[in-house]
Amino acid sequence: MTIDSPANPLRFVLVRPSHPGNIGSAARAIRTMGFERLELVAPARFPDPEATAMAAGADAVLARAGIHDGLVDSLAGCSLVLGLSARRRGVQLPEISPRAAAGQALAAVARGGQVALLFGNERSGLENAELARCHAMVRIPSVDDFSSLNLAQAVQVMAYELRVAMLGDELPAAPPVPGEPPADAAQMERFYQHLAQTLDDIDFHKGRAATTILLRLRKLFQRAQPDNRELRVLHGILADAQRMAGLAKGGK
Ligand code: SAH
What we know:
Radius of gyration: 30 Å
Shape: elongated
Strand content: 5-15%
Largest sheet: 7 strands, parallel
Bound molecules: S-adenosyl-L-homocysteine
Helix content: 40-55%
Strand order of the largest sheet: 3-2-1-6-4-7-5
């Protein structure tokens, strides 16, 4: 599935939203994360200029938003329904994080399913009967004494987690390393020997023990993980330093 797939298998369902501004903000929130499917269950006011204003250009999402009288209609075709709620309700449901929810949603989509993410009314949230339609409850881990996010902001958090999960899926297992692979142990060893010899040649230690500084330099270059091309440059610099030291000695 691509993020912008036209038959978007992920839908964001706002149940009984009161404020049209929140509908617009939610449209914008999902659009910024690459989603487009918004379903509205019994919105108090929609369409509405406030929704359009808050959508800030995510008009296509609003224009295509489905409007339903009841929740069941809005969930047609869904094999997984996840209900976002700030409060633990009486309903016995597994409670998961937005990140876990994103993982489960994408897994369901990968199996060919459709997924609904359900958001409740601004004041009353999702009612028990609505949560009863959900396979799990998703709680954004807000603080206990002020746990309720603005509706559109809750939509944004969930859409963001879905996007991160999708981008993660698209990335290859190991991040691509530009250029050559790091030099191997033998090449690094040759470099350390050259470095140690050069430090002697330029009289860097001035009678002090060399061991500590050599260990520290090893750590530095281990961390940098130079590749062969970079080691060749370093060898070149060391060779020039040795040559100059030789000239200086010869000149004395
Ligand atoms: N007083 C309501 C708050 C509703 S906020 C209540 O306690 O449920 C509107 C919607 O935003 C909620 O129904 C829920 O879908 C979502 N939401 C807000 N804060 C949330 C949170 N911390 N975790 C999950 N969803 C949250």
